[in-house]
């Protein structure tokens, strides 16, 4: 296990992890202008100057929102930006991996005032970097700027508050988003303070699921776990999210909507919990089942019970001693009990915000998944040797006219080949591959460590095979059937040979975010999807299908691997993607233009969606098409 870092050091890196993601979003969503200033100081490629909203010129520190030293060159749009006559470049995309772990406020901003003494955030070995940044800014603005004028550790809440005031975000929403950003930093620091044992090829999938250190690579609420009344506030020290308990509910059958053989499939779990009740009451499971025969028995996450009691008075919650302990997966709300419930996992509703979304399950999702699994999946074009599609076998949701209420009492039973008794592979959530080795101050990731990718040749070979199989897995359904899976690193698992570590293929799970162009599906496969009105899985055009696939597979999934394998800046990783796309996508197919010709693609706006308070409806903004990235050029 890695040595435990100091608390102050970990908090500094926790602030950076969240704040760097917020900066990346503000830039890519064009909420602020960012300027790249080249710099030849040791360890520095340049500076990212983040301008205050609506600023079009820069004359001094007062015009800046933040200053970020960069270890890598970001993607610029080719248009020049002049500062005091010095030609700089407009930044179109900047990634957290481009940044050094120092985010400076352009003016001393106190963190806390105690006994009339101003206390600043801890600075982690930043003296040389701070001096270099100050010197560069002095030469740029033609005025002396001292290191004391740059506060290191400018955090996401401070940055957001300053931006929100300039941008005109209302106070209530500003506070709400501040709370989520703060939660993200608190939980990130907790993860750094409690490193886990590093996994191996022999590790179980659950071990890999729970090794996530930082989470979503670009979402500023990447580690947020924000609860809302009547649920109590969550604290990482007191709240067990990795091995929670599931509770047993009894929902009157007149108030439950079932899809698939839910009661039959859920019986092994409910029987275990009923047995505990039977032993306590000196009765039998059969007797209890008869007593509750006009109800559907379903599991619920222990944290969700308070919401269920508040919203659904007709639902009976069995005593806590009937509960059973489960293991959470990467998403936190999905859980597994491999020894008791082999080959299956449960997706449970959880009324807390993880990243920016409330992790409940809507009636749209509970209705769609089983129908799509049995009615559409068998007819899709894909290679079952490369891609395994985990069906959603059954679901249950409370019947209520208001879907925002109904979604708080729901459950999905899903296939999980990784937990089947005959699985002989190492099956790993792809998000875990690009995680750091349980330390914030390193660029060594699990994929490098576990697969021993210690040479350039090894990294190239690993990535080339990975890209080839990933595109073979997920392109055919989109190309032929108009179906895009949400193939980001959390929903996608990679199958490796347990002995050799050779990649064999992929597993995809969770249908809540798929996109389907119905006309293409009907024409190609002879089947249609069964959805509730206003379902967000329906794509009006094939462009919507390609947009989802690009965002999840290319931007959120493959880009992360390309970066951590050191194959981004020299362009070789993107050249591999273009090579394999050339073999798989016909030039007369609309996807060819979207992926291989367009310089801009629609980028998902995570912060704009927060400002507009959207979840099921997305906002997109044009961003550089990273598939076209080439070194020392603009995209």
User: What's the β-strand tally?
Assistant: 28
Compute the number of structural domains: 3
Strand order of the largest sheet: 10-20-21-16-15-14
Mean pLDDT: 92
Distance between the first and last residues' Cα? 41 Å
Strand content: 15-25%
Q: Care to give the gist of this entry?
A:
This protein is of the alpha+beta class.
Textual characterization of the structure:
With 635 residues, this protein is of the alpha+beta class. It folds into three domains: 183 residues, no CATH class; 213 residues, no CATH class; 208 residues, Orthogonal Bundle (Transferase(Phosphotransferase), domain 1). The chain is 35% helix and 21% strand. It contains 18 helices and 28 strands. It has a six-stranded antiparallel sheet. It has a five-stranded antiparallel sheet with strand order 3-2-1-5-4, with helices on both faces. Strand 6 and strand 7 form a beta hairpin. It is globular and about 85 Å long. 50% of the residues are buried. About 2% of the residues have low confidence. It comes from Absidia repens. This is IucC family-domain-containing protein. InterPro entries: Aerobactin_biosyn_IucA/IucC_N, IucA/IucC-like_C, LucA/IucC-like. It holds the Pfam family IucA_IucC. GO terms for molecular function: acid-amino acid ligase activity.
List the helices and strands and how they pair.
Blueprint: H1 7-28, E1 34-38, E2 46-51, E3 64-70, E4 75-83, E5 86-93, E6 112-114, E7 117-119, H2 127-141, H3 156-167, H4 171-193, H5 205-209, E8 225-227, E9 245-252, E10 256-259, H6 262-281, H7 285-291, E11 295-301, H8 305-311, E12 316-317, E13 324-325, E14 327-328, E15 334-336, E16 344-348, E17 350-354, E18 357-359, H9 363-375, E19 387-389, E20 392-398, H10 403-406, E21 410-415, E22 425-429, H11 430-433, H12 446-450, H13 456-481, E23 483-484, E24 492-497, E25 503-508, E26 515-516, H14 518-525, H15 542-564, H16 572-584, H17 590-597, E27 600-604, H18 606-611, E28 620-624
Parallel strand pairs: 19-25
Antiparallel strand pairs: 1-2, 1-5, 2-3, 4-5, 6-7, 8-17, 9-11, 9-12, 9-13, 10-20, 14-15, 15-16, 16-21, 17-18, 20-21, 22-24, 23-26, 24-25, 27-28
Helix pairs in contact: 1-3, 1-4, 3-4, 6-7, 13-15, 13-16, 15-17
């Amino acid at each position: 296990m890695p040595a435990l870092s100091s608390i102050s050091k970990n908090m500094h890196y926790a602030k950076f992890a969240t704040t760097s993601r917020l900066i990346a979003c503000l830039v890519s969503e064009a909420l602020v202008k960012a300027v790249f200033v080249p710099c030849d100081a040791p360890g520095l490629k340049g500076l990212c100057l983040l301008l205050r909203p609506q600023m079009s010129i820069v004359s001094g520190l007062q015009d800046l929102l933040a200053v970020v030293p960069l270890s890598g060159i970001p993607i610029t749009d080719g248009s020049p930006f002049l500062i005091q006559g010095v030609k700089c470049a407009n930044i179109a995309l900047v990634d957290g991996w481009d940044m050094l772990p120092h985010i400076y406020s352009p003016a001393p901003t106190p963190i806390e005032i105690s006994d009339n003494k101003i206390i600043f955030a801890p600075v982690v070995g930043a003296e040389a970097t701070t001096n270099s940044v100050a010197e560069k800014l002095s030469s740029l603005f033609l005025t002396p700027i001292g290191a004391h004028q740059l506060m290191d550790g400018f955090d996401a809440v401070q940055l957001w508050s300053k931006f929100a005031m300039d941008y005109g975000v209302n106070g209530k929403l500003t506070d709400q988003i501040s709370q989520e950003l703060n939660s993200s930093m608190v939980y990130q620091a907790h993860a750094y303070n409690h490193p886990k044992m590093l996994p191996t090829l022999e590790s179980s999938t659950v071990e890999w699921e729970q090794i996530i250190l930082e989470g979503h690579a670009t979402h500023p609420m990447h580690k947020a776990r924000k609860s809302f009344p009547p649920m109590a506030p969550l604290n990482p020290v007191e709240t067990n999210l990795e091995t929670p308990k599931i509770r047993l509910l009894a929902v009157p059958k007149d108030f439950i909507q079932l899809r698939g053989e839910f009661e039959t499939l859920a019986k092994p779990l409910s029987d275990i919990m009923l047995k505990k009740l039977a032993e306590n009451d000196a009765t039998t499971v059969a007797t209890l089942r008869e007593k509750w025969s006009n109800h559907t028995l379903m599991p619920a996450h222990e944290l969700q019970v308070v919401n269920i009691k508040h919203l659904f008075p007709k639902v009976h919650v069995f005593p806590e001693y009937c509960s059973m302990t489960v293991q959470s997966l990467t998403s936190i709300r999905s859980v597994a009990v491999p020894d008791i419930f082999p080959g299956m996992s449960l997706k449970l509703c959880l009324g807390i915000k993880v990243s920016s979304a409330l992790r409940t399950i809507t009636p749209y999702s509970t209705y769609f998944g089983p129908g799509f699994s049995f009615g559409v999946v068998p007819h899709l074009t894909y290679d079952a040797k490369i891609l395994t599609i985990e069906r959603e076998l059954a679901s249950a949701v409370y019947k209520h006219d208001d879907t925002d209420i109904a979604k708080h009492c729901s459950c999905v039973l899903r296939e999980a080949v990784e937990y089947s008794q005959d699985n002989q592979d190492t099956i790993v959530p792809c998000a875990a591959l690009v995680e750091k080795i349980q330390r914030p101050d390193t660029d060594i990731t699990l994929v490098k460590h576990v697969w021993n990718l210690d040479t350039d040749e090894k990294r190239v070979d690993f990535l080339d095979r990975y890209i080839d199989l990933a595109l073979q897995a997920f392109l055919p359904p989109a190309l032929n059937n108009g179906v895009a899976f949400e193939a980001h690193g959390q929903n996608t698992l990679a199958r490796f040979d347990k002995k050799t570590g050779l990649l064999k293929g992929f597993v995809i799970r969770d249908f809540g975010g798929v996109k389907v162009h119905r006309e293409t599906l009907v024409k190609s496969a002879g089947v249609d999807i069964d959805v509730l009105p206003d379902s967000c899985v329906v794509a009006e055009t094939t462009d919507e299908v390609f947009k989802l696939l690009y965002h999840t597979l290319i931007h959120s999934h493959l880009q992360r691997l390309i970066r951590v394998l050191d194959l981004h800046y020299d362009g070789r990783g993107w050249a591999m993607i273009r090579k394999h796309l050339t073999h798989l996508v016909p030039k007369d197919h609309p996807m060819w233009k979207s992926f291989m010709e367009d310089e801009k693609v629609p980028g998902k706006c995570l912060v704009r969606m927060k400002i507009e308070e959207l979840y099921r409806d997305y906002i997109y903004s044009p961003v550089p098409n990273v598939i076209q990235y080439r070194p020392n050029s603009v995209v």
